[in-house]
Design brief:
By secondary structure, this protein is an alpha+beta fold. 56% of the residues lie in helices and 9% in strands. Heme binds at residue 422.
Length: 494
């Protein structure tokens, strides 16, 4: 009898051990996929296969790579971006809507956002936008002094936040420096308090969660109060908030647009601009080429050399910013290729999809409701796509600059691709160009130290696993302040 009881106890303990082992394995995979998304993706494919599958928070996910899968990932209409990231959200789950309803809602949101951008960024407003950006830049950089040491990820971040917020709110909203500083602190507080730890161990982050919720309330309250005040103003105004109100947008819609624009713009513009300064300091021939290009443009379009640099740059028409800076365009593209290697998630809201790239070239089925994940490094850091991919070589994009080439091959994903191309690419490029131009012309600068991961002696790179929001899996990239420090000297160049 005792032997039977001992046997049953042993079996029960074995079952508990097996269950515990299974649960630990699930937890381990969840942590790897969320906290180390890039490394998890790049190490999980077997030789000769372009797909693999796993479960993330009990959801079925297929990882993909290769040109065919890449094209499907960016072109397939039933792969929803917003639904892809819902698994990381604590918001109310999406009701069981039809694929048509879900896709229609996503398409409507995209169209609405582009319409709002169109209101603010019409051709007749670009002269004003450029002058505003350069005025903001001049005020901030003037406070830096003539020489010193800076961390671009901190200093450029302050510039980008002000410039971005100014172009979508009003002069009055950003003119109070004490208020602006508090608003900026709350904006970054609610972002930095989204971490993998909050997903897996929420009880340890209750204080951070309260701080985040408080910051969100402050942001909404500040914007709401300002918008309601603007509603009561009289007369015709070209201030961004007034333009949105004049086109019938309500307070809630304007707030959502402003915060969405900030989320998408501040981090990506700061990240790109900071790395451009780092890479051009490490490859000074490109810094020299940029300076020559800007001088040439100014000599043709801003003849009065007695004017301050920011005034002369503000006189350059939008067409020249877009078409007369080919060297800077190449540098931007190469920088984005090296730094924008995040892991991107979609959810299939339509019928089952057949994904190419399985074992022995078999297709893999992606059921309705399942997720698919792709990492941009599959293209950007692939030696079959870019020769010697870890080398900083802007010239390589000369042969890839054809819009048709990039659209069909999806070799360059710095601004997204297909159905998921960045809606604000035009204004983002303009912001990057104005900041870089003023910096390159005003300062002699050199990178003096780094604590960043380095692939080789000449190519420092971001930590592709570094998280902000939930993870790189959630497409939110962080601004890591522990980066290259730049030594600046302002020689009064013009």
């Amino acid at each position: 009898m005792g032997v039977i009881i001992a046997t049953f106890i042993g079996i029960a303990l074995l079952q508990v051990a097996v269950l515990a082992s299974r649960k630990f394995k699930e937890f381990y995979i969840d942590v790897l996929a969320v906290a180390y998304g890039h490394d998890f993706m790049t190490s999980s494919f077997r030789t000769g296969e372009n797909t693999f599958h796993f479960h993330l928070f009990k959801n079925f996910v297929i990882g993909v790579r290769g040109q065919e899968a890449r094209k499907m990932f960016f072109e397939e209409k039933s792969l929803s971006s917003s639904e892809g990231y819902r698994m990381f959200s604590k918001a109310v789950p999406t009701p069981e809507l039809s694929a048509t309803q879900l896709l229609f809602a996503e398409e409507e949101h995209s169209i609405h956002f582009k319409k709002q951008l169109g209101i603010l960024l019409g051709k007749n407003r670009y002269t004003e936008i450029i002058a505003t950006m350069l005025g903001d830049l001049q005020r901030i950089t003037a406070a830096w002094g003539e020489e010193g040491t800076m961390d671009p990820f901190d200093h450029i971040n302050d510039i980008t936040f002000l410039v971005t917020l100014h172009m979508i709110t009003s002069h009055e909203f950003v003119s109070d420096h004490a208020f602006l500083s508090r608003f900026q602190n709350h904006f970054f507080t609610q972002l930095k308090n989204n971490t993998p730890g909050m997903i897996f161990f929420p009880w340890l982050y209750r204080s951070a969660q309260r701080d985040k919720e408080n910051s969100v309330m402050v942001l909404f309250s500040a914007l709401s109060e300002h918008i309601e005040t603007r509603k009561g103003s009289s007369g015709v105004s070209s201030e961004p908030i007034d333009l949105l109100l004049a086109h019938g947008m309500d307070t809630q819609g304007i707030i959502q647009f402003i915060l969405g624009f900030l989320f998408g713009g501040v981090f990506n513009i700061t990240k790109a601009t900071s790395w451009i300064l780092i890479y051009t300091s490490l490859h000074p021939q490109w810094k020299t080429s940029l300076r020559s290009e800007i001088k040439s443009m100014l000599s043709h379009l801003s003849i009065d050399t007695s004017e301050p640099l920011y005034i002369r740059l503000s006189q350059v028409p939008i067409k020249a910013w877009e078409e007369s800076m080919p060297t800077l365009d190449l540098v931007i593209s190469e920088t984005l290729r090296l730094i924008m290697n995040q892991t991107v998630l979609r959810r299939n809201v339509g019928e089952a999809l057949q994904i190419p790239g399985g074992k022995d070239d078999h297709v893999v089925s992606l059921p309705r409701g399942a997720f698919v994940v792709y990492n941009h490094a599959d293209a950007h850091l692939n030696p079959e796509v870019y020769t010697d991919p870890w080398r900083f070589d802007p010239q390589r994009h000369t042969n890839l600059s054809s819009p048709g080439h990039q659209k069909n091959s999806y070799e360059f994903l710095g601004w997204g691709a297909g159905r998921h191309r960045c809606a604000g690419v035009k204004i983002a490029k303009l912001a990057i160009k104005t900041i870089v131009s003023l910096f390159v012309m005003n300062y002699e600068y050199d990178a003096i130290t780094t604590r960043r991961k380095t692939h080789s002696s000449t190519v420092p790179i971001p930590d592709y696993n570094k998280v902000n929001g939930v993870s790189t899996m959630a497409f939110f990239e962080s601004i890591d302040p522990n980066g290259k420090l730049i030594d600046l000297v302002n020689p009064g160049a013009s």
